Amino acid sequence: MGVRTIRIIAGEVTATATLDDSRTADAIWKALPIEAKASTWGDEIYFDIGIAVAAESPKEVVALGDVAYWPPGSAFCLFFGRTPASTGDEPRAASGVNVFGRVTGDPTVFKKVRAGTRVKLERTDTKKG
């Protein structure tokens, strides 16, 4: 299928993320575009995306810039720093998440995003299936 990238627009912040070849990435790619209001949990943005995806190699400790899906909340998650569950500097999810991509560039730009900000996820190239 080639490299799939999405644009994440949150208020004045825009970033690109590259998706992997997982079932989670496939399901989210098919559901795009998605728009919702952001919630924040420490240095994490998350929001319900209205699709159900089963757990797929879930993990709690993630890397800076990881984009993931949280099955209990049907939520898209973007990690850019510590969360209330972190024990050190690592981003840590509330419970296991399916990591399906990574932000290109500096994910800490999302520190400017506040709860309630409208976030849009869209394909960067709408010509590809």
Total number of strands: 10
Number of helices: 1
Structural class: mainly beta
Give the biggest sheet: 10 strands, antiparallel
List segments where confidence is low: pLDDT < 50 over at least 5 consecutive residues. none
Order of helical and strand elements? EEHEEEEEEEE
- Taken from the alpha-carbon principal axes, the silhouette is globular
Strand content: 35-45%
Helix proportion range: under 10%
* CA-based gyration radius: 13 Å
Task: State the end-to-end distance.
Answer: 9 Å
Quaternary state of the chains:
single chain
Query: What value does the average pLDDT take?
Result: 94
Question: Keyphrases for this structure?
Answer:
10-stranded antiparallel β-sheet, 129 residues, mainly beta
Descriptive notes:
The longest helix is centred in the N-terminal third of the chain and has 9 residues, at 23-31. The protein has 129 residues and is mostly beta strands. The chain is globular. β1 (4-10) and β2 form a beta hairpin. The chain has one helix at 23-31, and strands at 4-10, 13-19, 34-37, 39-40, 44-48, 59-61, 66-70, 75-79, 92-104, 118-123. It has one helix and ten strands; from the N terminus they run ββαββββββββ. The model has no long low-confidence stretch (mean pLDDT 94). Strands 1, 2, 3, 4, 5, 6, 7, 8, 9 and 10 form a ten-stranded antiparallel beta sheet that branches.
